[in-house]
Amino acid sequence: MASSRIIQALESAFKNYRIVFWDDDKEKLIDEFETLELPDVTKIKINNNEFSVKYRILVEEPDKKFLIYRPAGEPEVKDNWLLDVQLASYKFVAEQDTLRCTEIGLDPTKFSSYIKQHENFFNKKEYREKLAAAIKGSSEKETIESVDLKIIGIMSPLRKVDTFYSILQSLLKDAYEQSQNGFMMPQDACLEMQTELLSLLAKHFKYQSTSLSLHDFALKIFSDSLKKQLGEPSELSNEVSMFLGNWQDSKNYGENFNEWTEKASSELNLQLTFDKLDFDTLKQIDYFRNIDEMILIKLKSDISNDLINDLDVRRILDIRCTKTWWKDFSDYYETAYAASKFKQLIKKVNLNLENIEDAVNKYQESWYEVDQQYRKFNFFCRNNKDNELFSDLKVTIDNLYTNEFLRPLGQKFSMAIQSEKNWGSFSNIIYQPKFFNNYVEPFIKRNNKVVVIISDALRYELGEELTRLINQNNRFSAAIEPMLSVLPSFTQLGMAALLPNNSIELKTDNTAVVDGISATGIENRKKILAQYGHASTCINAEELLSSKYKNKDIKEIVASNEIIYVYHDVVDTTGENVGEHLFDKSEDCLEELMQLVTRLSSGNANNIMITADHGFIYQDLKLDKNVDFVDEPFVTGKKYQVVRRFVTAIGELDGSNTDFHSFLAKDLGLSGKLSVLIPKAIQRIRKQGQNGRYIHGGATLEETVIPVIHVNKKRKDDVSEVKVKVISRERIITSGQILITFYQVQPVEDKVKGISIRAGFYRDGVPVSNIEDLEFNKETTNVEEREQKRQFKLSTGIDSGSVILKLTKRVENTDQYAPYDEITFSIRQNFFGRDF
């Protein structure tokens, strides 16, 4: 709509005149004319139509009112064909700048000349309306600089008023995209407001340039930031650090921040600078992708050559985890850490054992960690996009695992088995067929319900990690102990051994029978449980985790039964079908088991046990056909089933074949007449069509030591978080920067979780320093190891007075932060105006 002041002026003129001329040189107020509506007034725009207009207003419609708009202003006398009419009419002259000040809400005495300077902006109605909306209610407070910023925002890619940082980030994004497309068309804001934008850059960052180039500005702030990080003299102000931190964390422009860092590194050839840095300096540098690549190459080399231990690798990860490129490189860093920890374990491991029970005890105390770290290494290594970086180290790790641990341990354990003959007659370790009597029955005798989750091929090291994960959850406690599986260690027999039984028989088709009932399939297992005489059921985990089962359905199942067996299968199915994804799926397995525990406990299941039918071996390398495989054994009787890790037969093993253990059913605590032949150590039986990397059925510790995890849910909260304190004797700041020490009061443990903190100095809710992200997740008991130091650089323009060091804590599993702590500091006058 036209300005109310224009409308009022014209209405007043038409009270005394029938015809009013409006001269508007250069059509500055064309929008006002076109949107103008006056009752009983006809608008006419002059466009070489003077004679027809004159005839119409004087002859055809001599009584009507007319507003005659001349877009080129009043013509010279000799060209003014309407001069006689004009002399008898009213000439309306709109003071455009004053009118627009009034329209927008600006003080004409302060801004009339300003509007003249920025005609391109104020000639556009859309821009004027946005500016008017932005200053509504605050016109008295507006300054030239504040209006500058609003205009820059409206003309920027944002097309709206926003903070200086957001506006600048939008302009930098546009500049980057244009540079990538091979042409440069400056934004309207840069063309119209070049002087003002340069002034703002100078004020905030001390950036000086005779002409505006956002490309130059971007390169300058990154090169200057690098100088600051290296402790070298820099030209720009401390506020650069604040801007870079804000840009990096921006949801809208954070990705463009990363793009500019790579562009700056390339165009400024920063690699030459990086190559000269020592490693201790290098690992502290932020923003540039090249840094992480260099650190990882160095780490890989040092780990390969045994020049660094796992604790030092962990310290480097703790530094890099708050840096710009952590998300892109986290799997690489975790690969390095897993490799270093694996190699440290291999160095320390002592594989001496006295007998089967001694071996099991040592395995559950420490040996399992080797299997666990081998899995972790391969999991993270597989997640790396660049498979070449750790390719040679992977060969080393795979060979160490097989030749320094898996094979020699298998050989020594085979010797212990050979000397003891009977499998299952253990004094201090529970044998799998005794599982129900030892773990389930006691709950029933106390009139308590119990849920048993059986996860196919959940070997002991996976169970140990699951136990730690459960203990990290509020109100849950978990404890693990080892149990030895039945032999051969495969699904049908292991599942049967976990049911209540008086006798277990392995049939010639490799199925198992419990007390005369087949143990194959859920329905048969329900029958076997029912014989125990208490309300019971079996169910697939996949069903429980599906949307089909609501919480009320689970509550009904728990309420209706005293014994519930839940069957879960992720690891074994993956190993048998797509073995190369085994370690990826192992992570999924743990996650699903956590979900099962949560769902069942929400359904009022207070006593939950987790166990497995058997374990497994997996070697992520090509096997040696001459070392890792043996031929089928010769027996005097009949062979029934020949699989990778065992043979069932009736008869005896040829005495000349020393590659196999030979067991009668009774030697394994089983019924029937079958013999079981198992290759010693980690050897496989040669068969067509299988690579044999994933195996079970044999008699190694990895295949036979399975977890029994006791899970309970408590009534009260039992998980806490580490406390963080700020250690700083002085609360007075006398220079442009201050070093703050943060202290993690206690180490992270199962029931004490780490936290993420964001810290920065603020005044009146506005940041006046760089913002730092800190991770407090150290498990060490060493006090000094739990300290972190951060340098905060204050804005150059800040004056004396109080500032607040604000700590906010990240809300778990979100990107949101909640207040954590505030500490007041005082700034002394003597450093203002200086920048260090």
Descriptive tags:
836 residues, alpha/beta, seven-stranded mixed sheet, six-stranded mixed sheet, 31 helices, 19% strand
Mean pLDDT equals 91
Give the overall shape, derived from the CA principal axes: elongated
Strand content: 15-25%
Q: What structural class do helix, strand and pairing data support?
A: alpha/beta
**Biggest sheet features:** 7 strands, mixed
Distance between the termini: 53 Å
Write down how many β-strands occur, each being a DSSP E stretch of 2 or more residues: 33
Our count of helices gives 31
Radius of gyration: 40 Å
The amount of helix comes to 40-55%
Low-confidence runs (pLDDT<50, min 5 residues)?
Answer: 831-836
Instruction: Please list the strands of the largest sheet in the order they lie side by side.
Output: 5-7-22-13-6-12-11
Could you please describe the fold and organization of this structure?
The protein is α/β, with parallel strands linked by helices and 836 residues long. It is 43% helix and 19% strand. It has 31 helices and 33 strands. The strands form nine sheets. The protein has a seven-stranded mixed β-sheet, sandwiched between helices. Strands 25, 28, 29, 30, 32 and 33 form a six-stranded mixed β-sheet that branches. It has a four-stranded parallel β-sheet with strand order 2-3-1-4. Helix 20 runs antiparallel to helix 21 (356-383), helix 21 (356-383) runs antiparallel to helix 22 and helix 24 (460-471) crosses helix 30 (582-602).
